[in-house]
Write a structure and sequence with these properties.
6% of the residues lie in helices and 65% in strands. The chain is mostly beta strands.
């Protein structure tokens, strides 16, 4: 509870900073659209249980609107990034599975306040709402120790709170970046019943659905842009994203065997971390 109060206070403080009356208000009025192919490496860990590692590929798109007449908000942005790729699974108890198909989507809506210094530097505190889904499709695959794979889906809802920075040089080069804290709202981990629990006449009442209530995330990136002409810019952006999610609430299902005997099975989603390093490179216009 104390941790939640601290995070809420942090969020409110940045909100007041972002949307209060600020003397350095900018005069930037623009819209932009970005499309960027991406490549990243992700590591997901449940310490003491399992680990996923692999490279993912995809596409990021965003649309931003900067208008002073929207005051006190002067920046609005919508962005979506979708990635997919083969992930290698390893566990201390159930062996390893290579090339598990994974897919991730991260969608956000942001609002902020543009601040500038002589028109060359731009600082934009912002807040927003985000949704992240990571799916792992190992149903039908068998590990090195003979364990059956199963499908999983992680859903995160969060408040991004951060600051964007950018600076222009000789009207051709721009450099910037962002620093962000992600206030975790809630999560749901959906786990389908493994095949080894569905053979020999065994049936189950449901899938496992574990609610997650506690966690946090960070993201940081550096963006370098080269202006081609008045309409187009090339962009290059290395980034890092991190999530730390605590142990979930327990969920139970009823398993019925071929003799109609029922058994209750309860599971939790263990505490876990996710670290992603990547690069986006593309076009802004």
């Amino acid at each position: 509870m104390r941790c939640l109060i601290i995070r809420a206070a942090f969020t409110v403080g940045l909100l007041l900073f972002a949307f209060g009356t600020l003397y350095a208000e900018s005069s930037i009025e623009a819209t932009s659209f970005e499309i960027e192919p991406t490549i990243s490496h992700i590591t997901y860990k449940e310490p003491g249980y399992m680990e996923d590692r692999g490279s993912m590929y995809g596409l990021a798109v965003s649309y931003s609107l900067r208008k002073e007449y929207l005051a006190p908000i002067s920046m609005m942005k919508a962005e979506v990034q979708a990635t997919w790729g083969p992930i290698n699974y390893s566990s201390v108890s159930t062996g390893a599975i290579k090339n598990t198909p994974d897919a991730m989507i991260d969608a956000r809506i942001l609002i902020g306040k543009n601040l500038s210094d002589a028109g060359q530097k731009l600082v934009t505190p912002y807040v927003g709402l985000g949704y992240r889904r990571l799916s792992d499709k190992s149903e039908g695959m068998i590990s090195s120790s003979g364990a059956y794979g199963y499908d999983r889906e992680a859903n995160y809802y969060y408040f991004p709170v951060g600051i964007e920075l950018s600076s222009s040089f000789d009207n051709s080069w721009m450099i910037g970046g962002l620093l962000e804290y992600d206030l975790f709202i809630a999560g749901t981990q959906i786990t389908l019943i493994p095949k080894d629990m569905r053979i020999n006449g065994v049936t189950s009442s449901n899938q496992f659905t574990n609610d997650q209530k506690d966690g946090y995330g960070f993201r940081v990136s550096l963006q370098i842009m080269r202006r081609i002409n008045n309409a187009y810019c090339l962009s290059f952006e290395p980034y890092c994203r991190y999530w730390n999610i605590k142990t979930s609430k327990a969920d139970s299902i009823i398993v019925t065997d071929s003799d109609n005997k029922k058994k209750t099975i309860s599971v939790v989603e263990p505490a876990n971390t996710s670290t992603e390093y990547g690069i986006k490179a593309g076009l802004r216009f």
